[in-house]
Structures are given as C-alpha cells and as structure tokens.
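Hey,
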Amino acid sequence: MAEQNATVPMHQRLEFRLGINVGDVVIEDSDIFGDGVNVAVRLEGLAEPGGICVSARVQEDAVGKTDLAFEDMGEQQLKNIARPVRTYSVILDRAIAIVQPSPTLPDKPSVAVLAFANMSGDPEQDFLSYGIAEDIITSLSRYPSLFVIARNSCFTYAGRAVDVRRVGRELGVRYVLEGSMRKIGNRVRVTAQLVEAESGRHVWANRYDRNLADIFALQDEITEAVTIAIATAIADAELQRAVRNPPGNLDAWAAYQRGLWHLGKVKPEDYVLAQRFFQQAIALDPPFGGGYRGLAFAQFQEAAVFQTRGLHEAQISAEALARRAVALDGADAESRSCLGQALWARGELEGMLAEAERALAISPNLALAHGVLGAALLFSGRPREGLAALQTCNRLDPRDSATLPLRLNQVALGLYFSCEYEAAIQAAKRGIRSYPNFPLTYRWLAAALGELGRTEEAQEALETAIAIAPASFDMYVRGRVPWMRPEDHAHMLDGLRKAGWEG
C-alpha cells in the first residue's frame, strides 16, 4: 500500500492499520472470538495509518528471524483487556515508508486536547464527550500565551488507546489533555487530566460530577471549569520548568518565565533580578512581546511598591515598552493589558479602560485583562464594578504570584472605597498572610481599622506600613499619585488619621 500510495494524491490514498497477536481463538460458524482476537483488534487501533502494531509475543517470535525492526511502545492498557499488554510498532522498510519528522516545539507552551472517551456504552453520548473537548480547544485558543493544536489534528486519535509521549512527538506539543465521560442515570461524570508529554508526568487532574438536567449548560460549565484549571496548571508548570533550568541556559520564553517567578517574590532585590531576565528575553528574541511586557510591569511595580526608582521615570519607560509590545502584535491581549497598566501609572484611566476592553474583546478569558479592567473601574469611582472584575480575574487565575499581591491589595482598597470597612479588613489580612512583604496592603488595613475605631490594631498596621517602605508611604499619603481621585485620596487620609497618622 505504501508503494501504491507514493504515486496517489493524498486525498485518494488508502491506508490500513494492522494489529497482530498470538493467542487462543474460538471459531464459531463464520466468526472468531477470544482474548487473542480482542487484543489484535485493540492493537490495530494503536497502529498508525499504514502501520503495524504487534504484541510482545509476536515480537519475541519474529525478532532475529525476519529483517523487521521494532519500536517498543511500552505497556498499553487496552479497552476490555484486564492486564496491560506490552506493545511494539513495526518499523517498515525505510525505502517505502513515509516518514514525517516530529514538529519542533513552539516558543510558548503548547497543548493538544484529545477527544474525551465516552465510557457510557451509549454511542448517542459521543456528541457530549466530543463537544466538551472541542469547546475546551476553542476556549484555550483565546489565551494568547498558549499554542493550541486544532480540533481536526487532535481528534485523529479518537477511539484509540494512545501514548501521550507519542502524541506529544507527533503533534509537537508539550502538554496533552485527555479525559473521559461516563453517564449513569441522570448524572454524568467527567474526568480530565493534563500530562506533560515528554515525561508522562501528570500536571493536573480533576473529576466533575453533575446532574444531566440541561445538556448544553452542563457542557458550558465543565468546559469553563476545565479550561480555567488547565490554563493555570500550564502557567504553574512553565514557571517551575524555567526555574529548574540554569540561568545561563535559558531561551527567551524561559527567561520571561524566570522573570515572572522573581516578580512573585515581592522583594526589591527580586524586582531587579526580574528586570534582568526580561532584558535577557528581549536580547534573545527581540520580536517576542513577553520581554517588553514583563520589563514594563517590573519597572512600574518597583516604583509603585517600594519607590526604589522615580515613579515618573518608571512610567515613561514602562509606557514605551508596552507600546513596543503592542506595535509587535496589536492583537496580543496581554500587550494591550500591559499598555493599560502603563496608562494607569500616569492617571489616564479612560485610556486604561479602553485598552482593557480591547484586550477582553480579543481574549475574554484573560485574567490579566480582567485585572486591568478592575483597577480602571476602582479608581474611576466605580468600586463595586471594579470588585466584580477583580473577582473574575482571581477566579480565572487564582495563583499568579506576579500579579496576585497587587490584586489582593486592590480588593481591600475597593472594599474601603465602598465603605465596607470590616470586609476591607478581612481582605487586607488575607493579602498580608500570603504576601507579608507587600507594603501597600498594610495602609488599607490601617485606614479601615481606623474608620471602625479599632485604634490599637490600626496603629500597629500603620507603623508596619511605614517601616516596610517609608518612601512608598510618603508617595501615596503625603502626595497624591496620578491615578487616585482627590475624593478617594481624602477618604484614605481620613482613615489613616483615625489610625493615628499625624501628617
């Protein structure tokens, strides 16, 4: 068939799969049965188009007696077969075999979502299991930081027992998502697991049990939950992957991830290191927007949180970097969000809001864009709307160590602006427990405690806010930063004076 296909157009080729096993066969009328037959059938499903897959017993009998070579596929768990079966792929004659080299991995994290297996025994439920996987592919494709393989390529593995390592090699991806669906009565159980293809290591797994009341609502709910979870899991895995690499052996993406890792430490010295890694990413790959985005954010954070550099100088540099990232790719939602943050630094709240909305139009599930939208609304006198956007941001990405300290601080100040002082205190304490080095949150804790007359606690929080970063406290309190309205600044000062501040 390979010889015949060599002269036939791709769409007219006939390609067969073969599965070969040795075992007992039961013959009845004109049909055959038995485990030997069942294993051969499952091996056929494992074979590539135009390929042959054999069990270990066949390989043992054939090796050394034929000119064939075999590739070990490891032990495979075959459907309806009790024990795993050691499996081999026959390496065909190189003269006639059509060899396709494995695609190279993209610069950013890549993922393939396989069709979910329908374990219900009801073929009518195939549409649900396939639909969930297809919707996840669509949702993940909206994340600018991911490279997602298209549905048609992913679904070629449907109905086959697959080795995720092979899927990773053939599709050129770092991560593979696989799952299954089982319907029992009026309930459905969906399981999903994300695997690092190269190592076979499980990065994330979860199970969802739901009532089968509204099939489309169920599909949407599971799709959203899985998408959010695996996008976060991939981000975490990429961060750890970068940290494990020696600093001198980083490509642009890994250098960018290493910079994000240092940002999450929320220390002045780590902000300096983060900027070095972002500059390294720019030097290694000038068209890559991530380096410019990261450097812009680090410069602004360094000035806004610890004031180890001038705010005005940092804002000008950050905006130039963000505009460079947008110029490289105007459809990159992360770059649009970064530009929104840079505009925020000089009090351009309308421009900030516009960039956040542009980013969300491009990528509706981008947590960063929801965070920028939330900040724009908070400081524009719309704190309740801002808190709702921040809640969405935290749900989409609850563990982003680079931006989470700022987000937790913004939740506390949003509640303070809404005069919900007790809730502001609790939010500030949650932020401080996670990031005790982040000085801005102590200021809102002190102000909220002051408004409630809890003077002793307020004084302690006030002293801590000043001690951690005195220059930052002076910048926000004695002056007024460009993005804070006069009435909001006066509201903050009222709480701080009640906390014991005498400025």
